[in-house]
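Fold this sequence, please.
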Amino acid sequence: MGIIFLFLIIIVGVSFLSYHGTASKRIEIKRSNMFGGMVVSSMVFIIITGIIFIGSYSSYIKLEAKLVTIEQYKESIELYAKKGVAEFKSGAPTELTDLKYNNYQMQIGEMIRAMRDTIIEYNTGVVSRKLRKDNWFFNWVTLIRDDMKPVKMSDYLK
């Protein structure tokens, strides 16, 4: 609400300056300048508020997409781990298994690192949005679901 309050103060200030800054002594001209200043500054701040909302919504969508990406990493890591362990336990000759899964550990390690980086980005986004939502100045223009919370990597890798 703070940003809207600030915009209203600026609109009143521009209207006041438009009225008292008019060189003419005629009241009709002063009122029309005041109205013009009010309309122009209101339109500018409506556009600014719209841009802020669009940016907030866009970053909210990106945050949701990161959560889906984390889920996909989890599924992929579990699948790789399940398949790899099954192949090692199946009694197949180790020479064939070693050739088949030549870079297996490296691929799993890369997936886990990518998942870790995505979780870090997601958690940073969630925490910063929650702090902005609690701030009296930005709370009205910050979009976030109430049930969003930082995730732990250990919840996804078991």
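Residues 27-89 form the longest helix (63 residues). The mean pLDDT is 84.
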